[in-house]
């Protein structure tokens, strides 16, 4: 199978995987949101940064190095596996000992046990990180889907059952743990590759040299992004943390799923392209394809946010609506940043990647300090403004590596943004006129959300038929 056909097949299976898994995940989250109070989600949000840090340190960016390595051997995979396992255990010990101090910081005693149990997840993930990297390298997303579906369904069932009988925050903890356990066990049973107890110092140095810079960059990004939850958790109530966390998770949910589908394929695919011209052409097409989906989807969610939250999650989650609407605007541009940064990784410039993250986050701290004086809305706005600024920076440095300047990227996506603006204004006007006549939240979601999506593609057809033609690629009718 040639590289192009392999990538297209990978996208299809990756899409099936993401869609099926996330339908289950979303359904579980809806049920849990109705069963549990926002405070329960807030408690998990307070400690998620420490779990994310542990997971990033466990991997050290070396699985990314495996994926970009031409023809990695058993010694490569096994060296990274052994490293991940040892590091994960050491990090768990640190997190375990630190848990009481984290609980004191937030003044929430229950967090000590929550952190200690939840942190077990990144030790479990260390047993399977290389297995997943190998499947990704081979673009075997069909098997990934077959492993993820049962683990998602079983963990969701456990979480909902525990929540319904009164386990509160522990239902969220065990949901995460069960998912990691079931996925890991299945991976060892059904993935043919098995690690050898081999550790090669030269192999380790090669992968670590590339990966550690990505890890530091990932840590900086994780700490900065979760700094808002830390600040809100320290100065506001767990319920307010829950509202922010829920809004942030939901606004990222559709974008991350769509980006993940293509992202899993694009990194190994881009890594196998030796010509900058071919890389640029592939990236241009990829970016447009993503935004053709992301722009109408996110704009429709912004438009119907209030009836959507009320219908799906219930009245108690309505305070999260303004946070969601502001953050969702920024999510539209997230793929532009993500794939420019992917270019840096593909070109082996993890050093530039790291420097960018350091400089951006230093500036981001200033936005955070400025926003905290204006309450949670001020924090949300400061986070959003900084995100836009950082995306432009990513476009500049990533684009330079393939001669794809910022102005050219903006020019390429302008027809999509124009179609989005026109369709949103038209849909907002329709909503202003008819919202009093349509009392049902469900009918408002269908009517106004559906109208926006249809009007977007109609406007895109009028403004840019060439870009509209890319939609055929999504159905595999054209390569």
Automatic annotation (TrEMBL):
Pfam families: Polysacc_synt_3 (PF13440). It is found in: Cell membrane. Belongs to the polysaccharide synthase family. Keywords: Cell membrane, Membrane, Transmembrane, Transmembrane helix. The chain crosses the membrane at residues 40-58, 79-102, 114-133, 153-174, 286-305, 317-341, 362-393, 442-463. Its main location: membrane. It comes from Idiomarina fontislapidosi. It is a multi-pass membrane protein. This is Flippase. GO terms for cellular component: plasma membrane. It comes from the Bacteria.
């Amino acid at each position: 199978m040639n590289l192009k056909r392999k990538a297209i097949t990978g996208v299809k299976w990756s899409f099936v995987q993401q869609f099926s898994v996330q339908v289950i995940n979303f359904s579980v989250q809806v049920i849990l949101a109705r069963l549990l109070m926002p405070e329960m989600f807030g408690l998990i949000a307070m400690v998620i940064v420490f779990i994310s840090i542990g997971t990033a340190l466990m991997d050290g960016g070396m699985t990314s190095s495996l994926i970009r390595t031409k023809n990695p051997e058993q010694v490569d995979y096994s060296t990274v596996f052994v490293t991940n396992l040892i590091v994960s255990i050491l990090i768990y010990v640190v997190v375990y000992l630190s848990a009481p101090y984290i609980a004191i910081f937030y003044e929430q005693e229950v967090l000590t046990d929550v952190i200690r149990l939840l942190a077990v997840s990144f030790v479990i993930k260390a047993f399977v990180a290389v297995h997943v990297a190998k499947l990704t390298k081979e673009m075997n997303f069909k098997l990934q889907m077959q492993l993820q579906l049962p683990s998602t369904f079983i963990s969701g069932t456990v979480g909902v059952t525990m929540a319904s009988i009164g386990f509160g925050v522990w239902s969220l903890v065990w949901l995460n743990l069960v998912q990691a356990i079931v996925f890991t066990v299945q991976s060892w049973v059904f993935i043919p590759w098995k690690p050898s107890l081999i550790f090669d110092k030269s192999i380790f140095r090669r992968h670590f040299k590339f990966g550690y810079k990505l890890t530091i960059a990932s840590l900086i990004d994780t700490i900065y992004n979760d700094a808002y939850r830390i600040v809100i958790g320290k100065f506001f109530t767990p319920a307010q943390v829950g509202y922010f966390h829920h809004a942030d998770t939901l606004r990222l949910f559709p974008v991350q799923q769509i980006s993940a589908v293509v992202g899993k394929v694009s990194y190994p695919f881009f890594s196998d392209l030796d010509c900058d011209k071919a890389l640029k052409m592939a990236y241009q097409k990829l970016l447009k394809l993503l935004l053709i989906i992301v722009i109408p989807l996110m704009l429709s969610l912004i438009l119907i946010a209030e009836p959507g939250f009320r219908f799906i999650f219930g009245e108690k989650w309505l305070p999260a609506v303004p946070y969601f609407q502001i953050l969702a605007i920024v999510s539209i541009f997230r793929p532009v940043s993500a794939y420019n940064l992917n270019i840096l990784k593909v070109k082996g410039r993890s050093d530039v990647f790291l420097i960018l993250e350091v400089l951006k986050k230093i500036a981001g701290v200033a936005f955070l300090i400025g926003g905290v004086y204006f309450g949670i809305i001020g924090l949300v706005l400061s986070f959003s403004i900084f995100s836009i600024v950082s995306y432009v920076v990513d476009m500049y440095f990533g684009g330079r590596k393939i001669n794809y300047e910022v102005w050219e990227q903006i020019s390429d996506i302008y027809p999509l943004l124009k179609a989005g603006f026109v369709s949103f204004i038209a849909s907002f006007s329709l909503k202003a006129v008819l919202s009093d006549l349509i009392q049902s939240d469900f009918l408002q979601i269908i009517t106004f959300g559906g109208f926006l999506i249809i009007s977007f593609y109609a406007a895109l057809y009028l403004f840019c038929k060439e870009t509209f033609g890319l939609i055929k690629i999504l159905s595999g009718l054209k390569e």
